[in-house]
Amino acid sequence: MAGTILVVQHFACETIGTIELALRSQGLSFRYIRVHQGDAVPAHLGDAAGLIVMGGPMSVYDHGRLPHLGQEMRLVESALELGRPVLGVCLGSQLLAHVLGARVYPGQFKEIGWHSVKISPAAKHDVTWAAVPGQFFGFHWHGDAFDLPSGATLLASSVLTPHQAFRFGASAYGILFHMEVTAPQIDELAAAFPDELHQVGASVEELRESTRRHLPQLSDVGQGIFRGWSKLVAIMD
Q1: Any catalytic annotation for residue 90?
Q2: For residue range 19-40, what is the model confidence (pLDDT) as tens digits?
Q3: Does residue 2 carry a pLDDT above 70?
Q4: CATH code where residue 120 lies
Q5: Could you give the CA distance from residue 125 to residue 154 in angstroms, rounded to a whole number?
Q6: Are strands 104-119 and 135-146 parallel, antiparallel or unpaired?
Q7: Catalytic choice (90, 140, 163, 214)
Q8: Which of 32, 152, 205, 236 is most exposed, with minimal Cβ within 10 Å?
Q9: What domain count does the chain have?
Q10: Cα gap 229→226, rounded to integer Å
């Protein structure tokens, strides 16, 4: 498992997307734990070099009816205790925030589609976020939000959601919005959750047009961040 990242996947189209390019650039491999297909969540990170937890339609507070969420929390705790790099995306960021003692709760509004993300002053001093532009359009698909964990550094926010990204310690990152997405993944999300798209007054056509405009920059921003995180994994492995 040395040099291998464990990836927890909750939904078919919510793969690591463009994160794969960054991992391979550093000679890292990865192994999916597909909980939506019944894969067991390990109790401990073991010899894995790091942990990525992806998004999904469930909520952190569903752990009472979805036992795998509690198991994932213990896996995140294991990674933190071992000092291994962690990357939580969307639901994964909420699980990381919860493990660190922060409140996770339903947002006042669902944040779906392309919305501006503003970088915090502290992000300019972060090893993975330093080169990120001060503001750009991120892709969002979430209804829950979280408080900033105690001791964490805020990296990004949006108008609807004050805590969009954070770092805890040297190598644990939570990112609520999606920088890893590809155009086909966005189409799959829209097809899987049409009612949610309708709730925010958006259409598939509008979503696709915004994707054509904003995805190239977001992919560039994401690659910079994901490569930075992958370098942390490679250095610490």
Answers
A1: yes
A2: 999 999 999 999 999 999 999 9
A3: no
A4: 3.40.50.880
A5: 11
A6: antiparallel
A7: 90
A8: 205
A9: 1
A10: 5
Nearest CA among 71, 84, 59 for reference residue 4: 84
Predicted TM-score of the model (pTM):
0.97
Domain hosting residue 204, numbered range = 4-236
160-207 pLDDT, tens digit per residue, is 999 999 999 999 999 999 999 999 999 999 999 999 999 999 999 999
**How many whole angstroms separate alpha carbon 219 and alpha carbon 237?**
26
Q: Which residues contact 169 (CB under 8 A, 6 or more apart)?
A: 80, 83
| Catalytic (active site) residue 20 | no
Full 3-state SS string of 75-114: HHHHHHHHCCCEEEECHHHHHHHHHCCCCEEEEEEEEEEE
Instruction: Give catalytic status of residue 178 as yes or no.
Output: yes
Q: What is the CA radius of gyration of the chain?
A: 16
State CA 191 to chain mean position distance: 21
Catalytic residue among 10, 98, 178, 214: 178
- Residue 209: which H helix or E strand, with range? helix 204-236
Average pLDDT of span 152-157? 98
